[in-house]
Amino acid sequence: MDSLKKEHEHLLVLLADQDNKLSYYRKRLAQLGEAVTDDEDEGDDGEDDQPPSYTQHSEEQYNNGRAGSV
User: Fold this and answer.
1) How far apart are CA 1 and CA 19, in angstroms?
2) Which residue ranges have biased composition labelled Polar residues (predicted)?
3) By C-alpha distance, which of 39, 56, 38, 37 is closest to 47?
């Protein structure tokens, strides 16, 4: 149990360090004139949930009962 607590604390330190680095780089990018947002979810609109090989055509074939007959 003691080792789990130490590991948990270590992970929290790493997370805080990562957050500090992210903050530093955001500020640095802003200083260089780059557009920076605080929204980490920006760009995640859910449209890329399918693997790259997935196409509308393959979905239509599947829905028409022709899955695998490409």
Assistant:
1) 27
2) 52-70
3) 56
Contact indicator for 61, 69 with CB cutoff of 8 Å: yes
Q: Say whether pLDDT at 2 is over 70.
A: yes
**13 pLDDT more than 80:** yes
3-state secondary structure the chain: CHHHHHHHHHHHHHHHHHHHHHHHHHHHHHHCCCCCCCCCCCCCCCCCCCCCCCCHHHHHHHHCCCCCCC
The whole-angstrom distance between residue 30's C-alpha and the CA centroid of its chain comes to 22
pTM: 0.49
Query: Is the pLDDT score of 69 beyond 80?
Result: no
